[in-house]
Amino acid sequence: MIPAHLADKFARHFLSSIKRERQVFTARFIDIVIHSGEQVLISRLYRTDFKRSIADVFRIQVISNSDVRSPIITLGSTSFFHVRVNNLYVVAVTKTNANAALVFEYCYRLISIAKSYFGKVDEEAVKNNFVLIYELIDEINDFGYPQNSEIDTLKSYITTESIMSSAYAAEESSKITTQATGATSWRRGDVKYKKNEAFVDVVETVNLSMSAKGTILRADVDGHIQMRAYLSGTPECKFGLNDKLVIDKNERGVSDAVELDDCRFHQCVRLTEFDASRTISFIPPDGEFELMRYRCTSNVKLPLRIIPTVNEIGTTQVSYTVTVKGNFGVKLSATNVVLKIPTPLNTTTVDCKAANGKAKYVPAENLVVWKIPRIQGGQECTFTATADLTSTTVRQVWARPPIDVDFQVLMFTASGLIVRFLKVFEKSNYHSIKWVRYLTKASGSYQIRVSFGFPIGF
């Protein structure tokens, strides 16, 4: 038996410790507001700390204040975390010292979930689906605490006509609970397909900045691996790349090794196994998902070589000769190639001649747009033009912007990354078909600077 005075003291100490733990834990709670800039579209306040007028505070202090550029602003004891998408503000509000990374991850997850349900996230879509949005917010947020945000799990019990038209049976509820609380919350165990297939897309974006003398100032690759898994049951997948650490350890002398930086994985990947053996082992979600992201900053293979020559002819004309060469195998081709070649500010007309594709002068943007539908590996395409200039009384200095190149090359990786193997193991031992596709592209990030015979100014 515990004496009464000790029992009372123990109870007070126990309650105070719970209170302290509760105060620490509540540092993670957030309230959500979606604002169009003119009116509040969605407001979900979980605590009594805030009133609906908190949205007006955000509108006045942040939206109407052009000096505010930070995504986080603290006014008194209140912190506003906002993300902007299509002129909408997704705002998380808290009065505690919340984890900023967690709050922003929640906001971006909310946007991704909304896109998966009704496509583009804009004011009209929010107004048309506000009941669904409230239901989603209440499901992924429990009294202000972020909970399950797996899209596949949410779609199994929060449905719209475009996703699931027929009502699910009562026994589905237990399966959903198991999926949401089990070790693999991103996948259900009763998935069945007549044809078991896995599609892997390695997509890379090349970033290039080249000086007028041909010196590479910057060359790196931002890549991600997108996967679509249509596999029955709960398969175990093992994924192998020509990663430099793996090649150096197991296959010395192989020259096609790639050094990857900043690898980020989907939550299904077992990170401990990757750190130990650099093998990507995982149980994939059903359907499409992003397996990993990476960067490569060394030994970047440039798909297109651009050779620009620009000369001034007196003070009234500028001549252009631009050559593009496919720097990859003859069996491959670059498609949707677009070169944006800048012209001086006082250009009146441009006489364009392109043996391949079409070139057109766009006066509103002060550039020539040269479009080439396809360039085979090793092929050279040449563009020539003469820009006529008008004399001006006021001398205007031209900034000489670089040439921008956009393109896509299938079955080519600028980093040299190769999927060495993809193995699928499942207890029923079924046969699975794997497909791998590579795509390298550039959009506004492939730039070559231009030099002139002497400084130009108009």
Compute the number of strand runs: 24
Shape: globular
Say what oligomer this is: single chain
Helix/strand structural class: alpha+beta
**How large is the radius of gyration?**
29 Å
Strand residue content: 35-45%
Distance between the termini: 97 Å
- Please count the helical segments: 9
Low-pLDDT sequence parts: 1-29, 162-171, 454-458
What is the arithmetic mean of pLDDT? Answer: 81
Characterize the main sheet.
10 strands, mixed
Overall description:
The protein is an alpha+beta fold and 458 residues long. It has helices at residues 4-25, 54-63, 100-118, 123-128, 130-140, 151-157, 172-181, 244-250, 271-277; strands at residues 31-35, 40-44, 72-75, 78-85, 88-94, 141-142, 145-146, 197-210, 216-230, 236-241, 261-265, 280-282, 287-296, 304-313, 317-326, 333-342, 347-354, 358-362, 367-376, 380-389, 403-410, 419-425, 433-442, 446-448. The strands form five sheets. Strands 8, 9, 11, 13, 16, 18, 19, 21, 23 and 24 form a ten-stranded mixed sheet that branches. A five-stranded antiparallel sheet has the order 2-1-5-4-3, sandwiched between helices. Strand 8 and strand 9 form a beta hairpin. The chain is globular, with a radius of gyration of 29 Å. The relative contact order is 0.11.
Can you tag this structure with a few keywords?
24 strands; alpha+beta; ten-stranded mixed sheet; 9 helices; disordered N terminus; globular; 458 residues; disordered C terminus
